[in-house]
Amino acid sequence: MGNADFERPHPVAIPPAKPFLKSLKSGLKETLFPDDPFRQFKNQSASRKFILGLQYFVPILEWAPRYTFAFFKADVIAGITIASLAVPQGISYANLANLPAIIGLYSSFVPPLVYAMLGSSRDLAVGTVAVASLLISSMLGKEVNPNEDPKHYVQLALTATFFAGVFQSALGLLRLGFIVDFLSHATIVGFMGGAATVVCLQQLKGILGLVHFTQGTDLVSVMRSVLSQTHQSKRKPCFFWINAMAPLTSVVLGSVLVYLTHAEKHGVQVIGHLKKGLNPPSVSDLAFGSPHLMTAIKTGIITGVIALAEGVAVGRSFAMFKNYHIDGNKEMIAFGMMNIAGSCTSCYLTTGPFSRTAVNFNAGCKTAVSNIVMATAVMITLLFLTPLFHYTPLVVLSSIIISAMLGLIDYEAAIHLWKVDKFDFFVCIGAYIGVVFGSVEIGLIIAVTISLLRMLLFVARPRTFLLGNIPNSMIYRSMDQYPTANSVPGILILQIDAPIYFANANYLRERISRWINEEEDRLKSTGGPTLQYVILDMSAIGSIDTSGISMLEEVKKNIDRKCLKLVLANPRSEVVKKLEKSKFIETVGQEWIYLTVGEAVSSCNFMLHTCKSNKASVQEFDAQENV
Q: Domains, the chain, ranges and CATH?
């Protein structure tokens, strides 16, 4: 009696072949459009499709008709609240980026208006951020000294912002947002913590009133710069007690105190004159012909990715609280367009900072109109109130930055990473150490490199599991996870937990051979039945390339040489199609491919018992003949 006599109730089907163009279209849709944005256009008239298209790219057109006065009252309160934070933070972060303070205010006017029209988040509050400011300062400062050539430095910062916007928009339009996913959660935690530490250290310049300060961002350079100028800081009046309990309050009180005491004449550094008026156009200032253009492009791409990672993560986090969804690709387009518009109107890089968004959320914002209210408040400040900031001491700006940065040093997240995933913890620490002791770029490179190495390690060295039978069931699971699972006599069941590619094919071939050898040795030592069948559970193998198919062919030959039988269980559709086209199914035999591990084991057991019965019958017949 052969294996064909065993009835398999669920034979494995080979998917029908699709035309190449149809298959390509389906693959691209699966890769680039997992959310199916075209679904809303189905069965719609041409005019309706046009309206839906406008609403898709300009979300304000979708929700504005439903806007109510109650929403407006809530957004006004939230907008005024975040404006009180945006003004001092804008000035502070511009100072961190070594840019004129007025550019920080400009950056809180135009970009929020653009985002309000194009963004999909109801809670995100747009503005400058410390990490991007630090990146711009450290990367551009290596090429152009902001004190010696401030005009060219500003031009490079605007140019970097332009290319950041172009890069962000391109990612959104081409739906390549998965690139940002290479910045893992652990990477961001470590990177943000390291950057926050460096930012806090750099504020010693403003707090101690140091005139000459290092352009480096590493711990050693900063501390050397501070310790070498202790004699200067001791001669400055001690205005360290000015606290940033609330940023705007600190700015007002500090400015009044400096004005009344004439402290600027006694060594306290102040912002100085701020020009009145709205953002001047800056298209002509974009330094496309600069010898440092490549530096500006590199700075733009790096800061653009960091800004996207922070902004999208912050937007999604707060959207979860209100149970709505934001479109990551729309957000990328919105960020890109607001940075392109900003670079043409004297603004530097903006995104959705966590601190400002948290204030916006807690103030009860309902829609992106809160950004419009904030921009209006900043506009009034630019038109009428900038002279009031003349006496604002830099020590207050430093305290504002420090108070904002301390919240980014998330040691609890690092402890959580250690408890959950040690590798992620080391990624986090690698990013932190790289930023603090090297530079922002080095920290970022270290973190991304470690993350990529981990991904490559998972691909190149996938896990393989020995499966056993859960008692009193037809379920087969990992024997490591379920110690009560029993091995099946004479049958080795293996599961490969990853796609099979050229990068892991050789490893898997050797690992499968090792499993077989170990199982044969175990059976010999225990005196159990000899190994007869090797079942490969392919349920976790989502895809396979030609190197993977060659590996399976070699495994088949090795198993044949040992007089064993290779059995496949639950191959996925893409894998089955390739195995069929490569004739591997023909080599194995269609009858040795099963839908589930349970059916494969039942068939193999049937064959084992059949062989035993036949062998026993032959022995009984021989015994009778001898009699």
A: 3-16+461-626 (3.30.750.24), 67-230+244-456 (no CATH)
